[in-house]
Design a protein that fits this description.
Blueprint: H1 4-10, E1 12-19, H2 22-31, E2 37-43, E3 46-52, H3 56-63, E4 68-76, H4 78-87, H5 89-106, E5 111-115, H6 119-131, H7 146-156, E6 160-168, E7 171-178, E8 191-195, E9 199-208, E10 210-211, E11 218-219, E12 224-227, E13 229-231, E14 236-238, E15 242-258, E16 260-278, E17 281-286, E18 296-307, E19 310-330, H8 333-351, E20 357-369, E21 372-384, E22 386-390
Parallel strand pairs: 5-7
Antiparallel strand pairs: 1-3, 1-4, 2-3, 6-7, 8-12, 8-22, 9-11, 9-15, 10-12, 13-14, 15-21, 16-17, 16-19, 18-19, 20-21
Amino acid sequence: MKNHWFTFFSGRILVKAQGDGLELLINKLARSNVFLWKLKKKTNKELIFYISLYDLHTLRKIAREFDCQISFMRGEGMPFLWKRTKKNSGFVLGLLLSFILVLFLSNVTWGIEIEGANPETEYKIRKELDAIGVKVGALHFLNNDPKKIQKELSNRIENLTWIGVNLKGTTFHFKVVQKTEPELKDEKSPGHLVAKKKAIISHMFVEKGKALVKINQYVEKGQLLVSGTIGTEEKEVNVPAEGEVWGLTWYNSKVEFPLESSFQVYSGKEKRVHSLTVGKLNIPVWGFGKIDFKDYDIEKEDHSLHFLGWELPVKYIEKTLRDKEEIQRSLTNKEAKEAAKELARKDLRINIPEDATLDKEYILHEEVENGKVKLSINFQVVENIAEEKAIIQGD
């Protein structure tokens, strides 16, 4: 018997044979390599069986040699389905177009809902969403995925503590947690200003309180800078000391930088590949041909397709292949030294307050060892060293 799926694609016919000499007919068909299956004998003079569409001509030719009548009960398989489809092409085309239209509309953004934001923040969110292409009427698979949208909004809008992004059907839902500003206290508790680290005073500005240090004076950590106790001995008053005391502080950094190094850069060439995945089956759509890049990075974006709110087991995949190449760099001792100093400065900027400034730098030790320049650098920084300390009863 021929394979069921093979006969489905090639076509098969259910045949009824009536008359005398049916056994002779069956034997002649078998000798002529005509395959028959599901052979059933209804009566002594009636048989039904299946043959492939390919053997129809042979059956007709052989049936003329015998005293029997052949009739075709029905045709099955792809050729007959195609014939019926062509006969009802208008209906099939309409059904196909309706499916495509519903599929298209199911993957378009029709709503954007924002929860937990005040009107001002909601306006900012909608403005930024419009800038990155998330708006009513936009196709889902042309937008970034929800995680990237969440990251974009968090980076662009400052007063967000957290924002959740969820796509349900054709609507984007955003849940917002805004930053809450601490309530400003009308009155501060009485206190002093003390040094939070050792330093040499460079300049200061005292708004309230009594300064106890002078310019160019060396102070230790915890030393009293501005007293919150003012007035005379007969009548002392405790107030919250206010002001800024700037001092020269010191930071040490040990860095090393290689004389020979290699790193990868993008050449600017790229190739985009588009495909559809159905389960484990990958169907290329665009970007055919072999990849000419010797070495490359792949950036992949998955976009799910939806139909009437359900997520289909079909994904639209967009891959960006970026050509990269390895660059060898050789530096002189002087160039490596400057690169190491810049690396140390960048590390310093991370560790000092935002309002602090770099004043001077001193190289304490320098050596070249194992193909690397090694430096020990002392940085002199000007920063506000004052911090508040509450006045405790009995101080």
